[in-house]
Amino acid sequence: MTAAGNRIAVVTGASSGIGAATARQLAAAGYRVVLTARRKDRIEALAAEINEAGHQATAYALDVTDREAVQTFATAFRTIAVLVNNAGGALGADPVATGDPDDWRQMYETNVIGTLHITQALLPALTASGDGTVVVLSSTAAHATYEGGAGYVAAKNGARVLAETLRLEIVGTPVRVIEVAPGMVKTEEFATTRFRGDTEKAAKVYAGVAEPLTADDVADTIAWAVTRPPHVNIDLLVVRPRAQASNTKVHREL
Ligand SMILES: NC(=O)c1ccc[n+]([C@@H]2O[C@H](COP(=O)([O-])OP(=O)(O)OC[C@H]3O[C@@H](n4cnc5c(N)ncnc54)[C@H](OP(=O)(O)O)[C@@H]3O)[C@@H](O)[C@H]2O)c1
């Protein structure tokens, strides 16, 4: 394990799901976590919870698609040990024939451009730490497509390519790039956001699946990867529940 000490870990999209779980686990591993997301009340509540548990956390409201706001945020840091690019998600599940271009744009803006903004802004501080780690939350959607998934698949492919290319470009600097690609994770908001609040449609995503991954399962893999010794780069972790063999092959007991 690397000694986290007083080192800073920034987590985007820390107001729910995988981001919140990752913030909790990195704080428990000894990092000073900086929680960012658009919903200030939620990240402030989580920061309070982490601090009450005897760890260190601060909250900073941030929309990763707002380049200027991201750049202002970055000026607060001289060195950063870990950046977890988690903010993102899916919108809609329409076929290519009828998909809404606005959904596609928004997914690209958040999952790709948002990751680009914050990674660019924090790269100098990650390098200055002498041992920086960039994590990109892609998805199994970045590795294989599925019907109704094209907009999200395209965006997550963008995030994957950003991670892979950055790794090539910064080799020789003290920063490593880790891609974590989860399959089906049952989080409170992911599917509900995708289906715009339609909880019935959202529930169908997980129907009959005995044990989808939890946010904690994914946070656990992220925390494991970032706490490997600095010379060890876990390029890519693909993590699925046992009941899921591929994006389209899921065992359901209905
Ligand atoms: N759940 C899955 O099955 C699954 C599988 C593979 C990959 N993933 C990926 O894992 C990540 C987390 O997913 P999750 O399941 O935890 O979803 P979630 O609960 O919906 O969390 C998404 C997070 O992203 C934040 N966010 C969205 N747009 C943002 C923006 N413009 N600026 C800043 N923050 C923004 C949200 O916070 P605010 O709304 O407060 O801004 C929220 O904290 C996403 O990138 C998702 O695509 C999820």
Automatic annotation (TrEMBL):
Q: Which UniProt keywords apply?
A: Oxidoreductase
Oxidoreductase recorded as keyword: yes
Specify the superkingdom.
Bacteria
The yes or no answer to whether the keyword Iron is present is: no
Q: Which Pfam families match?
A: adh_short (PF00106)
Q: Name one GO molecular function term.
A: oxidoreductase activity, acting on the CH-OH group of donors, NAD or NADP as acceptor
- What region holds the Ketoreductase domain? 7-184
- Return the InterPro entries for the record: KR_dom, NAD(P)-bd_dom_sf, Sc_DH/Rdtase_CS, SDR_fam
User: Which family does the record assign?
Assistant: Belongs to the short-chain dehydrogenases/reductases (SDR) family.
What is the protein's name according to its record?
Oxidoreductase
Q: Which organism is it from?
A: Streptomyces purpureus
